[in-house]
Amino acid sequence: LSAMVEVLLPSLNDGEVSSKIAALKWIHYLYEAMSDKFFIYMEELFPCLLRLLSDPSDEVVAFDVTVLSDLCTGKEGYNTTVEKFGLPAGSVRKLKAVSPYFVHIMKSLLDEFRRDCSFLHDRGTFIIRQLCSVLKVEDVFHTLAVLLNVEQDLDFVSRVVQILNSIFLTAPELFSLRNKLKDMPVHDESNDRNLFSSLYLCWAHQPVALLALCLISRKYKHAANIVHYFSELEVNADLLVEIDKLIQLIESPIFTSLRLHLLDPTYQADLAAVLYGLLMLLPQTEAFLILKRRLQCMPTLNYGMHSADQLKATEKSSLDQNAEACVFRELMEHFILIQQKHREYNSGKLKLKMREPF
């Protein structure tokens, strides 16, 4: 095996596309055939496999992701720990359920995105979708969210969240995640990795992305609070463009359930508050007219009707409702704090730019 690894390494580092693919296939085969013996060589191969994520060939990246997924899902003992990445204790606790190699892959990927902005925009979506196709989607997004939450570069986090949100809303690979988030409780004392909360803390860097997350997750009342807070933000061209994109998506199949909820007394009032709020924020563009026409289709709220969801909601104990309200209050405070940090960050950048000589 040692001799084979010595032969495979040069092909991974400097080979042609066909050589890289052949080497990756061999690694995949050897790992499947004798994982217990081959695992010790993965430490040597791992850095090469990480570098291949930035390979210009889609086929190489696809095979590389498959091999990396073998390592992440293997049953053998790990020679690394999450603690070695220098993450805060809270982040380590949230990542305890995933493989340390999985965290290593995600962290290395973010490091590469940070180093090369064009790589993030040109290849980021493809790589993340490939990872989601062979690994557990929930783990991919949860881990990325936790790692991004400790990032100091706010611009970088915003850019990554924008791309992640686009994947989240449109990629077929994310269908299961979107379904899982629907009506997911936000209060669970026994769970350190509440998926909605993890994504929320990260998505807070992008107001419209956060709103979309709440809409997909059917947290309409909280979404209405977020839209109301938009009046405190600088409503610039970038924000309006993002709202415009969201309006277009609301008309897509992804948001079919949301449109049907306009007929449901359980959700109608809160959802109408969200959509009318967006309508008031928009100038009278095509997106404004699309949303206006959609709202005109909404029937008058009928308080005499009670859906199954509404009856289920009334059965919630007051304790659960209070706990959930408390969590939402904390999440909203986090969102406001993050937006304040962005304002301060942007203000600082502007001051530095003004000091530069012409």
UniProtKB/TrEMBL annotation:
The gene is vac14. It comes from Trichinella pseudospiralis (Parasitic roundworm). It comes from the Eukaryota. It is found in: Endomembrane system. One of its GO terms (cellular component) is PAS complex. PANTHER family: PROTEIN VAC14 HOMOLOG, TAX1 BINDING PROTEIN-RELATED. Scaffold protein component of the PI(3,5)P2 regulatory complex which regulates both the synthesis and turnover of phosphatidylinositol 3,5-bisphosphate (PtdIns(3,5)P2). Pentamerizes into a star-shaped structure and nucleates the assembly of the complex. The pentamer binds a single copy each of PIKFYVE and FIG4 and coordinates both PIKfyve kinase activity and FIG4 phosphatase activity, being required to maintain normal levels of phosphatidylinositol 3-phosphate (PtdIns(3)P) and phosphatidylinositol 5-phosphate (PtdIns(5)P). One of its GO terms (biological process) is phosphatidylinositol biosynthetic process. This is Protein VAC14 homolog. Pfam families: Vac14_Fig4_bd. Keywords: Membrane, Repeat. Belongs to the VAC14 family. Residues 119-298 form the Vacuolar protein 14 C-terminal Fig4-binding domain. Forms pentamers. Component of the PI(3,5)P2 regulatory complex/PAS complex, at least composed of PIKFYVE, FIG4 and VAC14. VAC14 nucleates the assembly of the complex and serves as a scaffold by pentamerizing into a star-shaped structure, which can bind a single copy each of PIKFYVE and FIG4 and coordinates their activities. Interacts with NOS1.
